């Protein structure tokens, strides 16, 4: 079994920051993993360089589960986004190496394809409902079967999900956190209107999604879900902060609008009650922030028992390496729901050449051995790290709110 002989991190910013771990075996096979944690990139980089890489050298690269357990249990300090993103990067890189040695794409190692492709959703957004609907029509023209709709809220500048550049929404765009203003009352008036107009303009043969981004109280979320029911949304995402998993019981009592949660979860323990009590319909934990493929498989298997499907996070702050890993995972599990897909810029794609491709509303990871993504280190070096924070939100009276 090939031993790990070297590992290093690569930090690059082709339009936005990415942290990549590269592991090499004694046979010269290399694998890469994504370790990007938006706005906290160097914390994960340092955790990897200072605390993880020294423990990897000399280990058997094929022993993916044992290395996962070693890094998780062996740290004593468990879970949390920094630790779990670092473990995820190691895990992805080891699956990549195993696939390259086997000469197989990773989805074959995970059990083989359960479907012909991975249905993805794109982000349509605009300052006004008309702009959002125009963007949604562009996505329909590109072949998308599922579209997320976000619109500006009258009377509020800088609404979550509304970008300057239509295809490349990027919220982490300032050297210090930008302050935005939030009003749940104003927001809750505009979203049902958006969905009503969307059904008139786009018809019923397209899945429509919406991200609340942790902004509402449980009872507010229950009311918004009820108001959206006539328009049959595919899901409402992150309706309320999820630290208190029991809070979702209240939302469930009031609405049949499906609920998706989990993009900021880092382990199966964050999902456990939501899944076991069937308080959500889609679990959005993703490969880079929830411990890699090894851990995400366990979350998906638990969800399968309770009829919960997956809907992995796939914003642009997940690098093409994490996107590829998610696609191998999505293709191989029975309870896949949908995959988020925000297109990366051409600059990012040039740093991370990849085998996955989009056609007819679906992504496919391709059949290159391993994950099917490489990092062009010379191109990466041309884009040095730049500090970039996500915004923060305050209510109209100046008090802090969840961004
Ligand atoms: O880093 C934060 C983004 O990934 C997040 O704001 C995007 O909520 C998001 C989504 O659903 O893509
Ligand atoms: Mg989200």
Account of the protein in words:
The protein has 403 residues and is of the alpha/beta class. Helix 2 packs antiparallel against helix 3, helix 3 (81-102) crosses helix 10 and helix 7 (218-228) runs parallel beside helix 8 (248-254). Strands 4, 5, 7, 8, 9, 10, 11, 12, 13 and 14 form a 10-stranded mixed beta sheet that branches. A 3-stranded antiparallel beta sheet has the order 1-2-3. A 3-stranded mixed beta sheet has the order 6-15-16, with no helix packed on it. The protein has 13 helices and 16 strands.
Number of DSSP strands? 16
Low-confidence stretches: none
The CATH architecture of the largest domain can be given as: Alpha-Beta Barrel
**Rg (C-alpha, Å):** 20 Å
Shape: globular
Q: Note the gap between the termini.
A: 46 Å
The CATH C-level class name of the largest domain: Alpha Beta
Q: Give the helix/strand class.
A: alpha/beta
Helix content: 25-40%
**% residues in beta strands:** 15-25%
Main beta sheet strand tally, sense and closure: 10 strands, mixed
Task: Summarize the topology.
Layout: E1 4-12, E2 18-25, E3 30-34, H1 41-56, H2 64-73, H3 81-102, H4 106-109, E4 118-126, H5 129-142, E5 146-151, E6 179-182, H6 184-202, E7 207-211, H7 218-228, E8 235-237, H8 248-254, E9 259-261, H9 268-276, E10 282-283, H10 292-305, E11 309-310, H11 320-332, E12 339-340, H12 346-351, E13 357-359, E14 362-364, H13 377-381, E15 392-395, E16 400-401
Bound molecules: 2-keto-3-deoxygluconate and magnesium ion.
Magnesium ion binds next to loops.
